[in-house]
Amino acid sequence: MVDHQDIIDNLTAHGIKPSVQRLAVMEYLVTHHSHPSVDEIYTALHPKMPTLSKTTVYNTLKLFTEQGAARQLTIDERNVCFDATLHEHAHFLCKHCGKVYDVAIRKPQLIEDTEVPEGFRIDHSALYLRGVCKDCLLAAETPTRQESPE
Amino acid sequence: MVDHQDIIDNLTAHGIKPSVQRLAVMEYLVTHHSHPSVDEIYTALHPKMPTLSKTTVYNTLKLFTEQGAARQLTIDERNVCFDATLHEHAHFLCKHCGKVYDVAIRKPQLIEDTEVPEGFRIDHSALYLRGVCKDCLLAAETPTRQESPE
DNA sequence: ATATAGTTTGTAATAATTACAATTTTGTTT
DNA sequence: AAACAAAATTGTAATTATTACAAACTATAT
Predict the structure, then answer these.
(1) What domains, with CATH codes, occur in chain B?
(2) How far is the CA of B56 from the C1' of C11 (A)?
(3) Distance from CA(B41) to C1'(D2), angstroms, rounded
(4) Which residues of B touch A114 (CB under 8 A)?
(5) Quick check: helix, strand or coil at residue B113?
(6) Cβ contacts of B132 on chain A, cutoff 8 Å
(7) What share of chain B is helix, strand, coil (3-state, %, to 5)?
(8) pLDDT digits (tens, 9 = 90+) for B48-93
(9) Residue B148: what pLDDT?
(10) DSSP designation for B106
(11) Total-model pTM
């Protein structure tokens, strides 16, 4: 459903020259909402682009983040991951399977709920939730019915 | 102002046996609200406890987190850091100096502002803000009055 | 005093990320 | 279209955070 030209326009609109590698990374981001890590993106793209370097993936995602074309998530302490969905939303990390889910925010502007000290400039906010996702809860329940709460 | 016995009681209340090393780490946490990293804690304690191992600091903070005696923050992508303040509050990372500040939350229960999917279990939420702190803004303004907004 | 479990330690291994110089590609000027 | 300059990509090496793990140590119970 994602038009190639849309991706080019998206990059261009963020002041990013649409090279083949950058297009590939952005295309991966907009077609996979799994909040991939650098390694995940590299591993997925490498077979079709054997000359792609992991450094390029790092460089590209850094550029995307700086130019506001993607968001860097630090919800998972093991590695950062990325999201090209730009509207305000929260993220949920399942501590069991490690998946990161998007969660809609009812009332935008979370910052207004905080008492940010006078004189501080806020550029960005992130709401991270942790717990166990539905799939993992069901899977844990079914087989033995013997599970620790953590 | 923090009584040694209070720290012992705090650990015990969380089911943690108060060894010398664990006491030292917890004491550091409750007397330093800088949201220290493992390395910061290790470097601070090592001179007075030359046999202390960095692995022990890792083990100890992992134990604290698991037992609910401390929180692990993933706001800074460079390394995780820790906080022994347990009441609900947000964190602010200054992208210039790297300091992490506590920020009070006006209305608790941020989770209620999100549309968490049916069947998910949420154990924890974290609100992370990023920007530039007052000190860094002032410092950037004074000398030249020539600053890029980022 | 001995056995046992729990804790700490140091080292080695792993994994994520960054630095950097060489190469390739792209764009521009002649 | 050749020559040049700038930008982007690549591969390797270095750095850093974290984890694995076995040995040494400590505390506790018998």
Answers:
(1) 1-86 (1.10.10.10), 88-150 (3.30.1490.190)
(2) 14
(3) 61
(4) 90, 103-106, 127, 129
(5) helix
(6) 120-121, 123
(7) 35, 20, 40
(8) 999 999 999 999 999 999 999 999 999 999 999 999 999 999 999 9
(9) 44
(10) S
(11) 0.89
